[in-house]
Amino acid sequence: MLIGAMVLAGLVLLVLVADRGTALMTRVADAGSLVYCRPCDMRYPRDQLVDGSRRCPQGHHIATASRGFSMSTVLIAACIAFIALGALLVASGAVATR
Ligand SMILES: [Zn+2]
């Protein structure tokens, strides 16, 4: 039961990490090209932005994609914690594996 849940958590973790990796790759690909400004509904080349790439030429603040805290980060942490806890319980013999 616990082993099955751990395998499942591992699969979820794999999917989440793969999703993260893909998002990272598209972000890197985007970095050299265009940045979207919502108020203008336009895309600008990154080198046209002002104030450290945080404002468009019209002066709107551009919300860049959040790098740090996100839901997938929490899920990844939860999966890792669950697997670690499960492994610990199995290793210590607290849970019968049969
Ligand atoms: Zn703008």
Condensed summary:
The protein has 98 residues and is mainly alpha-helical. 53% of the residues lie in helices and 8% in strands. It has one domain.
Explain how this protein is built.
The chain has helices spanning 2-31, 71-92; strands at 34-37, 42-45. It contains 2 helices and 2 strands. A two-stranded antiparallel sheet has the order 1-2. With 98 residues, it is mainly alpha-helical. Helix 1 (2-31) runs antiparallel to helix 2 (71-92). It has one domain (2-92). The structure holds zinc ion. The site of zinc ion (ZN) has 6 residues, from loops. Zinc ion (ZN) is lined by residues 37, 39-40, 56, 58, 60.
Strand and helix map with partners:
Elements: H1 2-31, E1 34-37, E2 42-45, H2 71-92
Antiparallel strand pairs: 1-2
Helix pairs in contact: 1-2
Zinc ion binds at residues 37, 39-40, 56, 58, 60.
How is the largest sheet built, in terms of strand order? 1-2
> Per the principal axes of the C-alpha atoms, what is the gross shape?
rod-shaped
The topology string of helices and strands comes to: HEEH
Distance separating the two termini? 8 Å
Number of distinct beta strands: 2
Structural class: mainly alpha
What is the C-alpha radius of gyration, as a whole number of Å? 21 Å
Number of domains: 1
Mean pLDDT: 80
The residue fraction in helices comes out at 40-55%
Compute the number of helices: 2
Any descriptors?
mainly alpha; binds zinc ion; 2 helices; 53% helix; two-stranded antiparallel ribbon; 98 residues
